[in-house]
Amino acid sequence: MAGQDRSGPWLWTLDGDIFSDSHPGTHVTVDGAGEYEVCLIIETSSGCVDTFCAVINVEGMPGDCEAIFTYEIDGETIFLNGSSSSGDVVSWHWFNGGDMFSDDGPEAHITVGDAGDYEICLVIETADGCVDTFCQTITVEQLEGDYEFKLISSGQGGSFNMQIFSPQQGSFTFTITDLSGKKLMEQSAALNAGTWHYFIPLDGQLSMGLYLVNVEFNNEKVITQKLTLLKD
What we know:
Layout (H helix, E strand, L loop, with lengths): L9 E5 L2 E4 L13 E10 L5 E10 L11 E5 L2 E5 L7 E8 L2 E4 L4 E5 L4 E11 L4 E10 L7 E4 L7 E8 L3 E8 L5 E9 L2 E8 L7 E9 L3 E9 L3
Antiparallel strand pairs: 1-2, 1-3, 3-4, 5-6, 6-9, 7-8, 7-10, 10-11, 12-13, 13-16, 14-15, 14-17, 17-18
């Protein structure tokens, strides 16, 4: 082909479709990453026709990803879900006010100490190196209402379940007494704001009968419920 007149058409094809027919230099924009067969067909003034093809691999460009998350609030705990983020995500980093609190995956949660505004950010990175950040300011409202305590089940099988609501963070102490007021069991635990369920194993420490369960919140309020232990 050297020295021949290439004044004829220059046909460029992408996977069999012509995208240019006028110049020796051209370009084409593809829809996404992948392999594409690009061919050049030339014809000289003397009628010589020749074709050259090459398979070109277009890799995903950094920027082909988007971090995003939704959230729900329960008391002072924020539950986060970044599963809607796009791209082949291989790392997830969650931040509260610039401090990382989780890198376990697309779902995370964080319990904050007080009502207020919190800037939560998700930073993702994909397998091809794309990095994106998405932040939201989440408002945790002050819980309203008073302390609540109730028994969910009545201790059959040597254990019982109770539900507690607290409008603020702190601690609680529950005691079990007999009807005369004699203390038989006492435990204390940290308390987060919101509604929580607790399983209390008795491990055969109490016999069948009627007892009183007293729950004291933050050393300021006591609620008493009757507990009936039933035979297994």
